[in-house]
Amino acid sequence: MPKKIPMRQCVACREKKEKYALARVVRTPSGEVLYDARGKLSGRGAYVCRDLRCLEKAVKSRALARALECEIPDEAFAELRRQFEQQETEDGHGKE
Ligand SMILES: [Zn+2]
């Protein structure tokens, strides 16, 4: 039997992907919204494709706010964008 790969769904595009192909965003017990690079933060989590377009859609459509059951502060959104941009550069995909 092949090992079952954990799948998660992007809150923006609703695509199911392997857990590690998605970025995890967490609302911590203290109410902060953070990008969880290592998947280790505790709190309520939501998954978004490692793609700025999905992040923006998730925030603007309020899908992320619903998934985390809290408002996404502008500063948290700005920080998430920064992290996603950095990640895209590190992955070497570049811009389209
Ligand atoms: Zn997506």
| CATH homologous superfamily identity | YlxR-like
- CATH class reads Alpha Beta
Major beta sheet, specifics? 3 strands, antiparallel
Helix % is 25-40%
Number of separate strands? 5
> How does CATH name the architecture?
2-Layer Sandwich
Shape assignment: globular
Round the mean pLDDT to the nearest integer and report it: 91
Share of β-strand residues: 15-25%
User: Helix segment count?
Assistant: 3
Query: Ions, cofactors, ligands: which are bound?
Result: zinc ion
Helices and strands: which structural class? alpha+beta
Number of domains: 1
Features:
96 residues; alpha+beta; binds zinc ion; two-stranded antiparallel sheet; 34% helix; Hypothetical Cytosolic Protein, Chain: A; three-stranded antiparallel beta sheet
Commentary on this structure:
This protein is α+β, with helices and mostly antiparallel strands and 96 residues long. It has helices at residues 52-60, 63-68, 74-91; strands at 7-9, 16-18, 22-27, 33-36, 44-49. The strands form 2 sheets. Strands 4-3-5 form a 3-stranded antiparallel β-sheet. Bound molecules: zinc ion. The site of zinc ion has 6 residues, from loops.
Give the topology, please.
Elements: E1 7-9, E2 16-18, E3 22-27, E4 33-36, E5 44-49, H1 52-60, H2 63-68, H3 74-91
Antiparallel strand pairs: 1-2, 3-4, 3-5
Helix pairs in contact: 1-3
The structure holds zinc ion.
Zinc ion (ZN) binds at residues 10, 12-13, 15, 49, 54.
